[in-house]
Amino acid sequence: MLRQAVELHRTGQLDAAEAFYRRALQTQAGQPDALHFLGVLCHQRGRSDEGIRLIRMALRATPLHADAHNNLGNIHKETGELAEAEACYRQALACHGQHHDALSNLALVLETQERFEEALQAYVKLLEEAPQLSLAHYLMGMYLRRHVNEIGDLEQAVACFRDAIRCDASNVRALDALGVTLYMLGRQDEAVGAYRDWLVREPENPVPRHMLAACGGEVAPPRADDAYVREVFDRFAESFDEQLLKNLDYRAPQVLVGALIGVLGVAEGALDVLDAGCGTGLCGPLIRPHARRLDGVDLSGGMLDKARLRGGYDELAVAELTAYLQDHPEAWDVVLSADTLVYFGDLAEVLAATSAALRAGGRVAFTLEAMEGDQDRPVLASSGRYRHARGYVERVLDAAGFVEVSIAPSALRKEVGQPVNGWVVLARKRGHGFG
Ligand SMILES: C[S@@+](CC[C@H](N)C(=O)[O-])C[C@H]1O[C@@H](n2cnc3c(N)ncnc32)[C@H](O)[C@@H]1O
Known about the structure:
With 435 residues, this protein is of the alpha/beta class. It folds into 2 domains: 171 residues, Serine Threonine Protein Phosphatase 5, Tetratricopeptide repeat; 194 residues, Rossmann fold (3-Layer(aba) Sandwich). It is built from 21 helices and 9 strands. Strands 1, 2, 3, 4, 5, 6, 7, 8 and 9 form a 9-stranded mixed beta sheet that branches. The chain is globular, with a radius of gyration of 25 Å. It starts with a helix and ends in a 6-residue tail after the last strand. The site of S-adenosylmethionine has 20 residues, from helix 14 and helix 16. S-adenosylmethionine (SAM) binds next to helix 14 and helix 16. Keywords: TPR repeat. InterPro entries: Methyltransf_12, SAM-dependent_MTases_sf, TMTC_O-mannosyl-trnsfr, TPR-like_helical_dom_sf, TPR_rpt.
């Protein structure tokens, strides 16, 4: 029964697996493996407290079970109890000195607690103990890249990712990291090679396809593919706020909403507002005082789950932005979009749809990444995001029926420690409506 439960668990049939674990426990009360795995399953289903209780019961019967200590650590880590997680990983290592998962988890949890020196020691120890383990090289590379401003070195990180791929050519996380790090170093030609290798491994994956185009290895699409956006942001949703606010100095929501409020005036809570590409909802609380109704739309369900938790929106829709706007004629007084149209090269269609979705006199406010000069064609940069020239934006806004256009330069985020120049764009739909 336990074997069957484990197989069902492994293949993601969680209802059936849970039933089988429970039946195994009815047959043999306190069976430690059943308790341990049922604990992991409970956590996966959002019942972390029950999971912790079950694994602790298992550990009372088998106190030297390193995997159970490690899994208990993982639950604590994912519920934000970092000190408890650390203690569990140390217990796992006390039971089994060469438990590589526990050691890599310990390193990560030390790093999350900003105990960088101890974290580095743990990453080094893992590499010494397991020089053939692809994960060990990958984690060291990621550590060096994250700490590029202090001890890190991107060249060394590249070497680590190449070693990770040498140990295991199917480690696509290492191929991904290698591609990104090479573009950070400005070595686009080599990044193209990494993305080609990744595509050979995963021909259906939209991420290497998009990044290959971004590095000049293929023709750029008019906008990022829906599947690419979904894949990237569903994966990013959990760490988005922390990453952007802490590591990238992300200011687009504050700067954009600040500029918008400058033209909207005193908050009267009277406007119907759409946050287009709302992500985790960072703009929501900033614009809420001006809104009678606040809607959000985004392609990524993972990002929207976070926005739902943050609260403040009347409705959140998982949809592609242009299609969603086209389905809602004259629905809003304001459409704002922070750091989302950077995933669009050609802005003509989305801005025409925005114009149609606004009431007469309505306002649009959005940010872009800036391209100097007056190129009429947007460029897909090797970051995977598009850049637009001022003249192009003016022309497209004019064609879409916008007036009172203002395009102000502003640094809205950092990349590789350097500010990325952006545009903060405000415009008003022709005609007399509100305000
Ligand atoms: C960098 S995030 C910005 C999120 C939010 N506006 C903020 O400032 O925190 C970009 C968001 O745009 C969304 N996005 C990109 N292209 C989209 C499209 N075509 N339709 C809907 N959402 C899109 C992504 O899913 C992601 O959540």
